[in-house]
Specification:
By secondary structure, the protein is α/β, with parallel strands linked by helices. It has helices at 33-46, 61-72, 79-103, 114-124, 129-139, 155-165, 177-193, 207-222; strands spanning 21-26, 51-55, 107-111, 147-152, 198-202. 52% of the residues lie in helices and 12% in strands.
Length: 223
């Protein structure tokens, strides 16, 4: 796949121009995104920052309904329909929750964003990076995070973590090894294409070391 050499960002002006800080966490299932998002939220809140922590899909009431379809529906969901459902959730989520928070100067910490769609639907479902990325950029009016933390882990190690949780797998977690290998490779390719936006961390490191690296990057953005 060919990398997009020119990251696109949100419009610089307008009533919903972003003035806060937008941090996203990405990576395969079982890499520890939720843990690191919670640790970052705690640190920022202790420092006096107003934080909105959310996720995709499922960050709004509409998103909860879509999340149930894309992750827990027992029947088949066509790959393009799956991509469109994620984009629909993303459009509503950004419009009703994320942009308003950013316009108030708050810090938004989000578990998954458009890079997940590019990796899971673009590469995992083999729908194509550019098509899926363009769909999300249209849905969100071009909004990109200030920093994206990619927690990278071998899919076999991630699967072992999920097995240890003893919870039923969702539709994506249950995909075969080659699917998750494509997803991981795409995440790393995205990070290579946008090194200024991505912070890539080895998710096998201890949680406190990862949290310290995330805090250091976020602190530089907060000034």
């Amino acid at each position: 796949m060919t990398a997009d050499p020119a990251p696109r960002s949100a419009p610089a002006e307008g009533p919903q121009a972003a003035t806060g800080l937008f941090v996203t966490f990405e990576g395969g299932d079982g890499v520890g995104k939720t843990t690191q998002a919670a640790l970052l939220e705690e640190w920022l809140t202790d420092a006096g920052r107003t934080v909105v922590r959310t996720r995709e899909p499922g960050g709004t009431e509409v998103g909860v309904l879509i999340r149930d379809i894309v992750l827990h529906h027992r029947g088949e969901v066509a790959p393009r329909a799956e991509a469109l459902l994620y984009a629909a959730d993303r459009a509503h989520h950004i419009e009703t929750l994320v942009r308003p928070a950013l316009s108030r100067g708050e810090v938004v910490i989000q578990d998954r964003y458009l890079d997940s769609s590019v990796a899971y639907q673009g590469a995992g479902r083999v729908l194509g990076r550019d098509e899926v990325r363009d769909l999300s950029l249209w849905a969100t009016e071009g909004l990109l995070p200030d920093v994206t933390v990619l927690l990278d882990l071998d899919p076999a190690a991630a699967r072992a973590r999920l097995d240890a949780d003893d919870k039923p797998f969702d539709r994506l977690e249950a995909e075969k090894e080659h699917f998750h290998a494509r997803v991981r490779a795409e995440f790393l390719s995205l990070a290579d294409a946008e090194p200024d936006r991505f912070l890539v961390l080895d998710a096998s490191r201890p949680a406190d070391e990862l949290a310290a690296a995330v805090r250091e990057r976020v602190q530089t953005l907060l000034g």
